[in-house]
Amino acid sequence: MKTGIEKLHYLSFALIVSGLLLIACNSPFTPKPTGYFRIPFPEKKYQLFEQTGYPYTFEYPVYATVTKDTMFFDESAENPWWINVNFPEFNGRIYVSYKNIGPNKFDTLVKHAFSLTGKHSARAYSIDDSLIRTPNNVHGVFFTVGGDVATANQFFLTDSSRHFLRGALYFDAAPNADSLGIVNRFLIEDVKHLINSFKWRDQ
Fold first, then answer.
1. At 151, which helix (H) or strand (E)?
2. What is the CATH number of the domain that holds 178?
3. Number of domains the chain is built from
């Protein structure tokens, strides 16, 4: 048998709980944005890639390495001038393939570059292309692919008569535009520096 005081305490407790539940139910729910680890980025400094026998030169970051490659995704190298510009700190690399115009028709190489970029259309929400023209007589097209894709930034460079080079910035991670965004924005500056410093060696 509860006393009057106990009943009063019980009633007060019930009223407080009910009030809190009403406040909680009527309060708007605000989800917290997804957080990602803060990444310390190195200072931007560049060095020259100028290897004997290569038909091109360019500048690349001091925090990157250049290695010779024999495959570009599922395509075999047809000459020794295929390379990777590696960013080990960010699990990324720029795949670079090179082809001579002559044995390969220029129109076919351009069509193939557009076709390779278009392979991402199933997962992309946009594919934008912009013309490249540098003071070093280097021309080409830069592709920006929107969405959760493995290679959001691709390009090709050419002089339209002898040389054709294609590059793609790729990450060894699950494609996620949000989580890779900050790293992609940092490295895209290096991709653009590579393009703007790029030269054909016979010019």
1. none
2. 3.40.1000
3. 2
